């Protein structure tokens, strides 16, 4: 929750610098609330608009639970 702003800032800077595909390692995330999920969806939308993609490569139990409970498991990389 505290790192959402930092992650968002880094993601925006990455997209602005031309990066179009992001793979997130979220193993250290201990809580994933609605604000976090909205940020991930916004990031996915921004990347798709540029022809890119967002994938979550690894998660913690709270992240995986939040994604699954909210129908966002498609963000998880297979």
Q: What features would you describe in this structure?
A:
This protein is an alpha+beta fold and 78 residues long. It has 3 helices and 2 strands. α2 (34-49) links the parallel β1 (21-26) and β2 (53-59). α1 (4-16) runs parallel beside α2 (34-49). The longest helix is centred in the middle third of the chain and has 16 residues, at 34-49. It is globular.
Short account of what is shown:
With 78 residues, this protein is α+β, with helices and mostly antiparallel strands. The chain contains 3 helices and 2 strands, in the order αβαβα. Helices cover 49% and strands 17% of the residues.
Describe the secondary-structure layout.
Blueprint: H1 4-16, E1 21-26, H2 34-49, E2 53-59, H3 61-69
Parallel strand pairs: 1-2
| Ends apart, CA distance between termini | 25 Å
How many individual helices?
3
Strand content: 15-25%
Structural class: alpha+beta
Helix content: 40-55%
Strand order of the largest sheet: 1-2
Regions with pLDDT < 50 over 5+ consecutive residues?
A: none
Tell me the total number of β-strands: 2
* H/E element order: HEHEH
Task: Give the biggest beta sheet.
Answer: 2 strands, parallel
The average pLDDT is 86
What is the CA-based Rg, rounded? 12 Å
Which word captures the global form?
globular
Supply the key terms:
78 residues; alpha+beta; two-stranded parallel sheet; 49% helix
């Amino acid at each position: 929750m505290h790192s959402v702003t930092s992650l968002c800032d880094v993601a925006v800077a990455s997209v602005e610098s031309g990066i179009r595909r992001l793979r997130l390692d979220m193993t250290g995330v201990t809580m994933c609330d609605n604000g976090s999920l909205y940020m991930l969806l916004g990031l996915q939308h921004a990347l798709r608009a540029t022809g890119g993609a967002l994938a979550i490569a690894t998660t913690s139990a709270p992240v995986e639970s939040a994604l699954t409970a909210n129908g966002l498991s498609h963000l998880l990389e297979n």
